[in-house]
Design a protein that fits this description.
The protein is α+β, with helices and mostly antiparallel strands. It contains 4 helices and 5 strands; from the N terminus they run αβααββββα. The radius of gyration is 19 Å and the shape is globular.
Length: about 140
């Protein structure tokens, strides 16, 4: 009886542990579809799509996580995928700077490339600031 219990427990525990990657993959898949060709606010609470995408990329790319830890959370992000390339732009409104990131979708383990900072134009700043202000006003009304 004891000999059967140990393999059963091992199988059960490995089955339960294997559920987490599937949930994470499923979650990243639907957030990626929503994020493609979008500009998203990055708000932690309540967690916006931008916040979730930032967390996803931070978990996937240690160098991206280190960049965020060094510069702080951006106000907005934009994402798009074209062919085998995934692009993301991080907008820091207070500093009026943006950084772009690029990675190969076929080689996830390859380091993500970063470029910048780039100045944010007055038009971009106005558009993103209005977007952010309206979102915060909406949250305050709740």
């Amino acid at each position: 009886m004891r000999l059967l219990l140990l393999p059963t427990l091992l199988i059960l525990s490995s089955t339960l542990m294997s559920c987490a990657p599937y949930r994470a993959a499923w979650s990243s898949g639907w957030t990626e579809k929503e994020a493609n060709d979008s500009i998203m606010l990055v708000i932690e609470n309540p967690a916006t799509l931008g916040w979730k995408r930032l967390q996803y990329h931070s978990a996937l790319h240690p160098e991206f996580r280190d960049f965020i830890a060094k510069l702080g959370t951006p106000d907005c992000i934009a994402e798009t995928t074209q062919g085998q390339r995934h692009y993301m732009i991080l907008y820091y409104l207070k500093e009026r700077k943006a950084y772009s990131f690029r990675n190969d979708t076929r080689r996830v383990s390859k380091p993500i490339e970063v470029a910048g900072p780039y100045p944010i134009s007055d038009k971009e700043y106005s558009l993103l600031s209005d977007f952010q202000n309206k979102a915060y006003q909406s949250l305050e009304k709740r």
